Amino acid sequence: MRKEALDAPDLEILEAQEPTLHKEIFPWTKAPAMPLDNVAVPTEVPGEIWITDTTFRDGQQAREPYTQDQMVRIYRLLQRLAGPDRRISMTEFFLYTRRDVDTIRECLRLGGAPKVTGWIRASSQDVRLFAETSRDLRKEGLALDEVGILTSVSDYHLFYKYGRKGRKEALEGYLKLVEQVLDAGFAARCHLEDSTRSDVFRVVVPFVRRLMKLAEAHGTPVVIRYPDTVGVGVPWDVVALPRSIPKLTYVLRHVCGVPADWLEFHGHQDLHLGVANATSAWLYGAARNNGTLLGIGERAGNVPIEALVFMYAGLRGSFDGMDTRAITEVARLYEDELGHVHPEYAPITGRNFAVTRAGVHADGVLKNIEMYLPFDTESLLGVPPRVAITPYSGAAGIAFWLNARNGARTDPQIEKEDPLVQRLAEDVRRIFEDGRMTSLTDREMRSLLAKHTAREVHPSSA
Questions:
Q1: Which residue in 16, 90, 96, 259 has its CB near the most CB atoms, within 10 A?
Q2: How many other C-beta atoms lie within 10 A of the C-beta of residue 1?
């Protein structure tokens, strides 16, 4: 980055005879390298930040298709989660099937946020499809007025995906399509696919500057979404481009002149850094962050919307009206009705999230409920803290289970030294010594409890 002038004049898209694949960074048979240039860029959190959604587009690509009813139900939950301040500002849909268009119609009729938008490939045929779909919906008094366009920018895509068109032909084609969308009175969103493996200053910068000029000429926003398509981005500013999300954000903001409100990050979890990368995008100047419910997406998945909700609140100091309990309803809908196998250890939404199994942890939460939990899971998610009874739960785990059963999690009435607790602990110990390999269910614990309480009421039956 030191070699580039941040106040450089307008640049032409630089053609190349051979693709720039950054093989010194992405050697294919090794882990991606992380070269440091030790150039720091300043943080710049926008005054307003937003979450955007791609559950029905990128998320749907990675699973069996949703039915129309399922999509409308999920959209209603997104509306609840967004809250009255509409913090989840936008979602996007395919336009290629009758089911998708009918779903768009139903969601538009519901009104409010997230705003319903379309998504198309970079082709004249798809632009016509969007325009015709929008026209038909307008006859019903419904407005579909924004579309995302796939505008891949890495040489991996420009040279190999598009039949070796090369840079100029492909990008000039994108620009013509965007101009068609703007000429028709619609807002455009350009998805700079694979931007974290791109030739930033020779492709991305001149292309995005041209897009900003088109937006200015038409008086219509052109949102720049910059996807970390294969999850190789990193959240540290001292790492060199193109992997550094802070640097890429800075270049788009201050070299390309993209307003913060028009700048949107889209991350993937291939190297476990999706949430960190998304947070760094907010920290360094992008106002919008894109994700999917439960992180469902291609390969290792997208940035989970639920994680963005909590990162948002961490930066803003408030959920700003977002209904976080809807997150748990989303997870249960996917598990119970959509057949989604959700990892039980998933952060925030997994069934194990508020469960402790270790006796030493149970002892801690018995003394202070905040000791082994990051926040009040019951008030924020509708998920009360629980304990799973295992060989390692000990008397403390059983005491916590009894108190939770009696509604006394935060003000325990039964201590681990209680004789009833000790008798139950001995029963549990014997069960596992006999070969039990799974935790005891609540029903089994209630059965053990009933045995001992019956003895207390009818001592002659002992």
A1: 90
A2: 17
Number of CB atoms found within 10 A of residue 249's CB: 26
Query: Could you tell me if 209 and 256 are in contact, meaning their C-beta atoms sit under 8 angstroms apart?
Result: yes
Q: Which percentage of the chain shows pLDDT scores above 90?
A: 73
Residue 347 counted as domain residue? no
Higher pLDDT, 351 or 116: 116
Cβ proximity of 171 and 214 under 8 Å:
no
Classified as helix, coil or strand, 378 is helix
H or E element, residue 328: helix 325-336
Give the residue carrying structure tokens 């946020």. Answer: 113
The candidate with the shortest Cα–Cα distance to 409, out of 383, 431, 391, 427, is 383
Are the C-beta atoms of residues 142 and 183 closer than 8 Å to each other? Answer: no
**Contact call for residues 216 and 252 (beta carbons, < 8 A):** no
When pLDDT is cut at 50, 70 and 90, the band that residue 4 belongs to is very low
Let me know if residue 234 belongs to a domain. Answer: yes
Give domain status of residue 346, yes or no.
no
- Distance, in Å, from the CA atom of 24 to the CA atom of 33, rounded to the nearest integer, reads 7
Q: Structural domain tally of the chain?
A: 2
What is the spatial distance between Cα 247 and Cα 236, in angstroms, rounded to a whole number?
A: 8
Amino acid residing at 315: L
Host domain of residue 417: 355-461
Which residue in 303, 254, 252 sits closest to 52, CA to CA?
303
Supply 12's token pair: 């032409």
State the virtual CA torsion across 65, 68, 71, 72 in degrees, nearest 10: 180
Is residue 41 domain-resident? no
Q: CB neighbours of 281 closer than 8 A, spacing ≥ 6?
A: 245, 249, 265, 267, 289
Helix, strand, or coil (residue 286): coil
Say whether pLDDT at 451 is over 90. Answer: no
Neighbour tally for 87: CB within 10 Å: 23
